[in-house]
Design a protein that fits this description.
There is one protein chain. It is built from 2 helices and 26 strands. The chain is mostly beta strands. The strands form 7 sheets. Strands 10, 11, 12, 13 and 14 form a 5-stranded antiparallel β-sheet that branches. Strands 15-16-17-18-19 form a 5-stranded antiparallel β-sheet. Strands 1-26-25-24 form a 4-stranded antiparallel β-sheet, with no helix packed on it. A hairpin with a 4-residue loop joins strand 2 and strand 3.
């Protein structure tokens, strides 16, 4: 049956994360490291001890743990083998100061990773610079979003010079706030989905809008953002790839979404997202990145408010829900789900593994 909520950190009896210096953290975004066929996991704000919010053990964000071998059957839960950046104890991989203006336009509380991918000998993390977790209604609370890259597989990182403006730098509610790298398709393009930043799940104008664009691998490697190709409705009912029009949201405006993930699993595009209003992680699939999306299905729920939720795994104060790119198949996904302490702070603050998810 695989794992049905196995905690990957913050275990009282110890675990592989704590052995690498990470006591508790969230997100745990999985990615493949093709240079040595290992797996990486990128955490957000993390702590060396077991309690979220302890300033004495704060590690920062992002924090990266790696795994030598992933068991897609779920028979064995994820076990972390080493930590970045120096194979010693886990620590923040980006070089910046929290609660300071680091030259991106305003004070940064933290930088939160949204996704990570490695190809062509280079690793990339797309992140959001957070100004505040509690912005006023209609504001996203971000400074900007950016892409950092590493040419030594996560040891050192360099920021691309261009940043996508956020709330504090003139781009409030930008659909470039939060990205998901779907992967490189058989056609050779890197496909990327993006949406508004909704890190605190309080963005009243998020509306679940998601857009799609793509780059050649060379252009992305070079940071040639001007060569972005957009999936857009150029006239009524006429969708095409274009460089002369902005991307068109794939779905009508609906509920606010939090974290989301899209991955090409054996030729099928699988999407997961945290529906903030419905309080559940949903999935859907498509044969192509452009669409043909299936009906969204609830998979992991915060409570049993709807009959369709009954019998689903329940995780109070859930969010995240990242698709593991090493999932067994497009009908048997592994999801990495986060749990927030809520009113029970400082615990639980952790990531959980679920296998066998059929979207």
């Amino acid at each position: 049956m695989g794992q049905t909520g196995a905690p990957l950190c913050q275990n009282a009896g110890g675990d592989s994360a704590s052995q690498q210096g990470l006591g508790c953290g969230d997100l745990g975004i999985p990615y493949h490291r093709p240079h040595d066929n290992s797996w990486g996991y990128v955490f957000g704000d993390s702590y060396g001890g077991p309690s979220q919010g302890d300033p004495n053990t704060y590690l920062g964000s992002p924090v990266m743990l790696n795994q030598a071998t992933f068991d897609s059957s779920g028979a064995n839960p994820i076990s972390f083998t080493w930590a970045m950046p120096n194979y010693g104890q886990a620590r923040q991989t980006f070089n910046y100061r929290h609660g300071a203006n680091n030259g991106l336009g305003d004070v940064e509380q933290t930088r939160i990773p949204n996704d990570c991918i490695e190809f062509g000998g280079r690793t990339y993390i797309q992140y959001t610079s957070v100004f505040t977790w509690g912005p006023p209604a209609g504001y996203d609370g971000s400074v900007c979003s950016g892409v950092a890259y590493s040419d030594d597989y996560g040891v050192t990182w360099t920021d691309f010079g261009y940043h996508w403006p956020g709330d504090r730098t003139g781009g409030n509610e930008s659909l470039y706030g939060m990205w998901s790298f779907a992967g490189i398709d058989a056609d050779g393009f890197l496909y990327i989905y993006s949406k508004r930043w909704n890190g605190g799940h309080r963005n009243s104008a998020d509306q679940g809008l998601i857009q799609l664009f793509r780059f050649t691998q060379e252009d992305f490697h070079n940071g040639a953002w001007q060569n972005q190709q957009n999936w857009a409705e150029v006239s009524s009912g006429n969708w095409q790839w274009t460089s002369t029009a902005y991307p068109t949201p794939l779905f009508p405006a609906a509920n606010n979404f939090g974290e989301f993930s899209v991955k090409n699993i054996n030729g099928t595009y699988c999407m997961s997202y945290f529906d903030v209003d419905n309080y559940a992680i949903y999935t859907r699939t498509s044969p192509r990145p452009e669409g043909g999306w299936s009906v969204p299905l609830p998979q992991i729920v915060g409570d049993y408010r709807y009959p369709t939720y009954w019998g689903k795994p329940q995780v109070p104060n859930l969010y995240g829900g990242y698709i593991h790119p090493g999932s067994a198949s497009a009908t048997s996904l592994t999801l990495i789900v986060s749990q927030w302490p809520g009113n029970n702070a400082p615990n639980p603050y952790r990531v959980l593994q679920f296998d066998g998810i059929n979207p």
